[in-house]
Amino acid sequence: MIRFATIGTNWITEAFIRAAKQVPSFHLQAVYSRQKETADAFAEKTGATQTFTNLHELAASDDIDAVYIASPNAFHAEQAIVLMNHGKHVICEKPLASNVKEVKAMIETVRKNDVVLMEAMKTTCLPNFQAIQHHLPKIGRIRRYVASYCQYSSRYDAFKQGTITNAFHPAFSSGALMDLGVYCLYPLVVLFGEPKSIQAHSVRLSSGVDGEGSIILDYGEMDAVVMYSKIANSYTPAEIQGEEGTIVIDTIHTPTRVHIHYRDGRTEDISVPQPHEPMYYEALEFMTLIERGEKESTINSHARSLVTMKIMEEARKQTGIVFPADERFA
Ligand SMILES: NC(=O)C1=CN([C@@H]2O[C@H](COP(=O)(O)OP(=O)(O)OC[C@H]3O[C@@H](n4cnc5c(N)ncnc54)[C@H](OP(=O)(O)O)[C@@H]3O)[C@@H](O)[C@H]2O)C=CC1
Ligand SMILES: O=C1CO[C@H](CO)[C@@H](O)[C@@H]1O
């Protein structure tokens, strides 16, 4: 049994708990919130038996083995480091942190402690993503990866009315690239590694974060184009274009229906059953690592989280997006 605590009381933590409960070794021991009333209400809703309002008490507790972090991005590194220094395993929401320095500090903390740290990037743990990897050689020499995640945010309505919520505030290391662009980039890094160079463009909002953006990534004999937005929608599937065929993926964040369109006109459905909720697979991966005494996921590895963050930081540099967290760790 792995005794979990959670940080963050928004809907995503409920979704994680619901999915993780399908893994037999999961036990929800405690929830953390800044406010006692919120913690109590969330514990009642989720079945946790303990609550915390002090991160250091949570970190020091002998009742907890692992923590799922779903706080605003700006707090991921700080919270994870405190927890890992007390021997807690950490599964931390995407993006792993605010910037490269923070990711490096987190990886350094893993090295000093006997703990697992994994970025909760659901996409790459999904059976249909693994099907894409398996069938990739069938499309011949790869020439382009295209992915978009553009979803108009209800919080943008509030923004237009003059209320800047966490999702659009630089103090929380937010914006379209950090929130949605990461879903296009992480699978790209898993499939093709680190690009030689990138060119980024973004539409900056008055708060200083990006509302949308695009990045072209140079891989020498192939390139990648990723597009992301919190201020407009896109219905375009993702594609991996090869000389012999093209893999078409319905949605990059949660691949469910995946087809190969061969150049000779044939089509092959390479989708596989994905019976569980999307977050089940990342939860299973994380818990399996703990049970096997392994330090890191070979899927959502530290190196891949670091390369993804390097790309995002470079894109921010090119487009003038600075977070207070960058100065904190400078
Ligand atoms: N995997 C997925 O599909 C999704 C992942 N995410 C990720 O989850 C994380 C949280 O996102 P989201 O729920 O939108 O974020 P929120 O801004 O809603 O904050 C999440 C939680 O953090 C706490 N919090 C809020 N504001 C502050 C603050 N100023 N200081 C400290 N703690 C605060 C709150 O918990 P409390 O009040 O109880 O302390 C809140 O429930 C992000 O990293 C995001 O990228 C988000 C949605 C989907
Ligand atoms: O990761 C995410 C996926 O979906 C959400 C929107 O529905 C995002 O805002 C979020 O951060």
UniProtKB/TrEMBL annotation:
Highest taxon listed in the record's lineage: Bacteria
InterPro entries reported for this sequence: Gfo/Idh/MocA-like_OxRdtase_N (IPR000683), GFO_IDH_MocA-like_dom (IPR055170), NAD(P)-bd_dom_sf (IPR036291)
Keywords, sorted A to Z: Oxidoreductase
Residues covered by the Gfo/Idh/MocA-like oxidoreductase N-terminal domain: 2-119
EC code: 1.1.1.292
Enzyme class: oxidoreductase
Domain GFO/IDH/MocA-like oxidoreductase: 138-248
One Pfam family linked to the record: GFO_IDH_MocA
GO molecular function: 1,5-anhydro-D-fructose reductase (1,5-anhydro-D-mannitol-forming) activity; nucleotide binding
Protein name: 1,5-anhydro-D-fructose reductase
Taxonomic source organism: Anoxybacillus ayderensis
Upper lineage: Bacteria, Bacillati, Bacillota, Bacilli, Bacillales
